[in-house]
Amino acid sequence: MPPVAESTLSVRADFPILQRRPGGRPLVYLDSAATSQKPAAVIAAVADHLRDHNANVHRGVYALAQEADAAFEGARERIAAFVGGEPRTTIFTKNVTEAINLVAYSWGRANVGEGDAVLVTQAEHHANLVPWQVLCRERGAQLRYLEVDEHGELSLDALDGELERGDVRLVAFTHVSNVLGTINPVAEIARRVRAAGALSLIDGAQGVPQLPVDVAAIGADFYAWTGHKALGPTGIGVLHGRREVLEEMEPFLTGGDMIASVDFDGATWAELPSKFEAGTQPIAEAVGLAAAVDYLAALGMERVREHELALTAHMLEGLATVPGLRVVGPTDAALRGGLASFTIEGIHPHDVAELCDREGVCIRAGHHCAQPLMRCLGVGATARASVGVYNDRADVDALVHALQGARGVFGLDGASGNGAAAG
Amino acid sequence: MDDLYRDYILDHYKRPRNFGELDPHDLEALEHNPLCGDELGVHIVVKDDHIEDLRFHGHGCAISQAAASIASEELKGMKLSEVGELGADWMIELLGIPVSATRRKCALLNLKVVRGAVTGDHAWPT
């Protein structure tokens, strides 16, 4: 493995929750792939909005409502710009799951039918899998899977082979695998899919928080991500769509705020992006997410990636010292996002996570909402440690120490006697 | 001494009693723990309305495996009608360790499986 430069990023103090000391120890939060912690700037932005600027948007003529409008639409502009998108084609949803369902319902039900196929990878999160299963079952279409190897890597030749069959209408794939950490060559995949006349949808839930992302340069038809993994609040997701495709689509949810006009016989739809934003929107959440992307932009996403790459390399080195530990996914940190999924011979992942918690180390255990992939990997569950901008080498060292201790509790450390076992 | 991972828990985890398969068997069920995807199944041989023998199979964490192992020793010989009456408290008390809310399903999975096999009620024990 090539040496990775040590990071100079040190922002732990910006995250109030990390001042907590469970059991008198520092909180070691290594579950950012599930959700990120929030910097004080985001917490303040949400509180400030609710305290001083709260009103519903798009309706009020009074000054306070106009402040809320400006805050909401201003947030959309900053969020869109952060990932190279246009405000008009940047749609707020509840989360990535809703964004993908929006596409599966509004685009899928009008464009996928018998004789058609949808292609997804074996490594997808249930959010980018189940909506396509349901669509294909309803429409009599075929759902096909693009295989991933043991590192979670896709074969572009296999992709071409599937596209050559001529029946693929849409290819849905993840930017960064939430289980294996694999970073997919998304721009290249999107290019090939487009050349074959199909549409592409990228699940960017793990991409936007840790990589510089330019949705225009990637060139997919849809790119979805979520606020809470990118230092923002829960309850807000983002869908970037290609304008021509979005304009052809019927609405997903219908009701207030997404209409141009309504009479007793029917309704006409508002322009983008409102057509896809029925009901009162996550206004304070949008303001909070805008503060989050401002924070990330100020750090610089290149620097964020560098920081997390260095930590991931350090983590892989540390994990390699734990006997019986097997990491799944790419072993070269440069090829993966900031996470490591692993198993330890003789200890179930749940017990690993429980014992890590005794030392204040928060990691995830389970199937990570990717059960079909877990079956491919031949594991029932894994433990997963994932890093964020606020982590440092001491966090990773605490994880490795806790894992050694877990082996001790389970009587697996033999004669090593490292004294780390809980007593 | 760890509160949760006591010696007898680890002993049942590493050397689970009544694990394997029983063929032929009269009753069976298979359940998943939604938290982790782990699965646990049971084969039961019935004689005179009692559980004459049973075996669990599957994989899981120390809590779920130890709970199944410990419960298996109590379930053998039990009247089928009594199995339907067993609730979550029975299992948690039998296990004898403080089980957190998130690990509760790990502890109760075996009872869910057995009750499902015996009564056809596949709800989580309460």
Binned, the helix content of chain B reads 25-40%
Task: Tell me the strand order in the biggest sheet of chain A.
Answer: 2-8-7-6-5-3-4
Assign the structural class of chain B, choosing from mainly alpha, mainly beta, alpha/beta, alpha+beta, or little secondary structure: alpha+beta
Unreliable parts of chain A = 415-423
Domain count of chain A: 2
Look at the structure and give the mean pLDDT of chain A: 94
Helical stretch tally of chain A: 13
What count of domains describes the coordinates of chain B? 1
Radius of gyration of chain A: 22 Å
Determine the CATH superfamily of the largest domain in chain A: Type I PLP-dependent aspartate aminotransferase-like (Major domain)
CATH architecture of the largest domain in chain A: 3-Layer(aba) Sandwich
Which CATH class of chain B is shown? Alpha Beta
Summarize the helix and strand pattern of chain B as letters.
HEEEHHHH
Walk me through what this model shows.
The complex is a heterodimer of chains A (423) and B (126). Chain A is an alpha/beta fold and 423 residues long. Chain A folds into two domains: 12-30 and 300-409, Aspartate Aminotransferase, domain 1, CATH 3.90.1150.10; 42-297, Aspartate Aminotransferase, domain 2 (3-Layer(aba) Sandwich). Helices cover 37% and strands 16% of the residues of chain A. The longest helix of chain A has 20 residues, at 63-82. The relative contact order of chain A is 0.16. Chain B has helices spanning 7-14, 62-75, 80-83, 88-95, 104-119, and strands spanning 27-32, 39-47, 50-58. With 126 residues, chain B is of the alpha+beta class. Chain B has a three-stranded antiparallel β-sheet with strand order 1-2-3, covered by helices on one side. Chain B has five helices and three strands; from the N terminus they run αβββαααα. Chain B has one domain: Alpha-Beta Complex (Sufe protein. Chain: A), CATH 3.90.1010.10. Chain B is globular, with a radius of gyration of 13 Å. The chains are: A alpha/beta (423), B alpha+beta (126). The interface between A and B is medium-sized, with 19 and 18 residues.
